[in-house]
Amino acid sequence: MSGLALFKNNIPAYLKNAELDDVTKALVKGGSKSKRIALGNNKFVLKIGGEEISKSATNKMEVVVVNAAPDVSRTFYASAYDPDGEATSPDCWSPNGRTPDASIASPQHSNCDSCPKNIEGSGQGKTKACRFSRRIAVVLAQDIEGDVYQMELKSKSFFYSKKDPGDLDHMPFDQYANYVGSQGFSLSNLVTEMSFDEDATVGKLFFRPTRFLEEDESVIAKRQQESPAAKSAVTMTVAQTDGVTKKALPAPTPEPKAEAEAIAEPKKKEEKKAEPTPKKDIANILGKWSTSDEEE
Question: β-strand 190-196 against 60-68: which pairing, if any?
């Protein structure tokens, strides 16, 4: 018996309305924080508030897709990707793939297509520094009325070439969505299997349908589609989902103030016989005044 089956189907009557005790409350992770499914080493990793809670036993997972961002987004990080690092807020990102989000204080460019970070070679090797992604919201097929999870798909998991599409058991997400729609059905009518491409060096997913939902399941899936969690999953960045805030840049160090030159106290002139006043060196006097702005 799976852990999920235990909590869904075998609850004693006296526990149906039970509340968490103080000990369990103190140990529960995440609280009401948003949840997402990340891609590990050929495993699906459940994270709550950026912290790993569990991972799948295999390289496959069955879900129901309840929402998807209508536009492909773009994300730029100034630092190199660290697979073992925590999620950080992007230095620049665009929810619609065309213009930077209004929250970005220092956009890389006003237009994504013309941005220098969108040029081949601006990233590692021949890649682009600004990456494409698509966010989707899913629920687990064995727990349709349970939590809604955010997933961020990288370009290789949703882009496809119409000249060389994947087969019906190995479709990138966009091809899969087009295929399901062309058959007259919605993604939320089906259980979708996600699986890793074992030949890929990075997390690349394939999608395929495994079964239609039962009528009662379909009603629940429709309700999940309209939930706030499903809507926020496709609008929030991974950093926002994990509760990561952008570190404030250190305040610029103020330039040291020029020390005032010591002014000698006037001395009483000694009474001397008048002597010829020597001519002042004009070049030397002017040389003491900077005519450039190097010291400003």
Answer: antiparallel
Q: Containing H/E element for 65?
A: strand 60-68
> Which pLDDT tens digit goes with each residue over 46-63?
998 888 999 999 999 999
Torsion sign over Cα 145, 151, 157, 159? positive
DSSP, collapsed to helix, strand or coil, labels residue 208 as strand
Q: How far apart are CA 102 and CA 68, in angstroms?
A: 21
Angle at 52 between CA 46 and CA 57, to 5 degrees: 55
Q: What token pair was written down for 108?
A: 């890389």
CA distance 153 to 159: 10
The DSSP line for 222-269 is HHHHTSHHHHHHTTS-HHHHTT--PPPPPPPPPPPPPPPPPPPPP-PP
Estimate the share of the chain in helix, then strand, then coil, as percent rounded to the nearest 5: 20, 20, 55
CA separation, residue 224 to residues 63, 117, 140, 148, 169 (Å): 13, 37, 11, 8, 26
d(CA 277, CA 152): 84
Grouping H, G, I as helix, E, B as strand and the rest as coil, residue 152 is strand
Give CA torsion, residues 263, 269, 273, 279, to 10 deg: 20
pTM comes to 0.71
Contact status, residue 80 vs residue 155, Cβ threshold 8 Å: no
Q: How confident is the model at residue 250, as a pLDDT? A: 37
Residues written for the chain: 296
Q: Which of 174, 73, 197, 153 is nearest to 165 (CA)?
A: 174
Condensed to tens digits (0 to 9), the pLDDT of residues 95-151 reads 899 999 988 888 999 999 999 999 999 988 888 999 999 999 999 999 999 999 999
